[in-house]
Design brief:
- The chain is of the alpha/beta class and 196 residues long.
- The protein has nine helices and five strands, in the order βαβαααβαβαααβα.
- It has a five-stranded parallel beta sheet.
- The structure holds BIS(adenosine)-5'-pentaphosphate and magnesium ion.
């Protein structure tokens, strides 16, 4: 199994690059943001609760997303590997993910961390907000709140995986194809010395 975390702040291109990576490397894509938006669309109790937090740019509780990840891992036990997008987002989530993977005799192989300036993030998300219908893209205040949440809670995930020497930083600015080439180069190197 090959497991990758595609890491980066809101708007860094995790979703965009995930699509290209899963197709090239045959991984199963798990995006907690997409899973939560699907719960919102179905108007489940979980979705209704999550929407209130997401609309303010706040994270949803750890136990909610960990439960969703656990279900997803169970449902796709035969996957060649997983690409985690937007998860883990707190140290608690990172530790829990390690535990869940360990139970399945596997682990995270690499964390590819995309680096993008704050102004570029805000520009990308405001532009998407013109057409996406995503309520957390519509105004700059909520976009900046998401970035603050990232700085306060999510960046710590990098320290967790840096201790395991699994973090590789990648320049997340440029064209989508340029960034994909940078990510692919790193992935090819990690796969060549695949450890888990
Ligand atoms: P989530 O859905 O994960 O959103 P996010 O991380 O805030 O960021 P985005 O998905 O908006 O950005 P992205 O990095 O995927 O970039 P994208 O490729 O879309 O989470 C949403 C919310 O759900 C959270 O705020 C939280 O409330 C909750 N949540 C989710 N997971 C959670 C968890 N684990 N724990 C707790 N709460 C959780 O690109 C962005 C835009 O830029 C697009 O329009 C794209 O076309 C464009 N773009 C991409 N690449 C480029 C490029 N190279 N040049 C120019 N434009 C580009
Ligand atoms: Mg995304």
């Amino acid at each position: 199994m090959f497991n990758l975390i595609l890491f980066g702040p809101p708007g860094s291109g995790k979703g965009t690059q995930s699509e290209k990576i899963i197709s090239k490397y045959q991984l199963h894509h798990i995006s907690t943001g997409d899973l939560l938006r699907s719960e919102i669309a179905k108007q489940t109790p979980l979705g209704i609760e999550a929407k209130i937090l997401m609309d303010k740019g706040n994270l949803v509780p750890d136990e909610v997303v960990i439960g969703m990840i656990n279900d997803c891992l169970q449902q796709h036990q035969n996957a060649a590997g997983f690409l985690f997008d937007g998860f883990p987002r707190t140290s608690v989530q990172a530790r829990e993910l390690d535990n869940l993977l360990q139970k399945n005799q596997t682990c995270i192989d690499v964390v590819l961390a995309m680096e993008v300036s704050e102004e570029e993030l805000v520009k990308r998300l405001l532009k998407r907000g013109e057409t996406s219908g995503r309520s957390d893209d519509i105004n700059e205040q909520v976009i900046r709140a998401r970035i603050v949440e990232y700085q306060k809670k999510t960046k710590a995930v990098l320290d967790h995986y840096a201790e395991q020497s699994k973090v590789v930083s990648v320049n997340g600015e440029g064209t989508i194809e340029e960034i994909f080439l940078r990510l692919s180069k790193e992935l090819d190197e990690v796969q060549a010395r695949h450890a888990c």
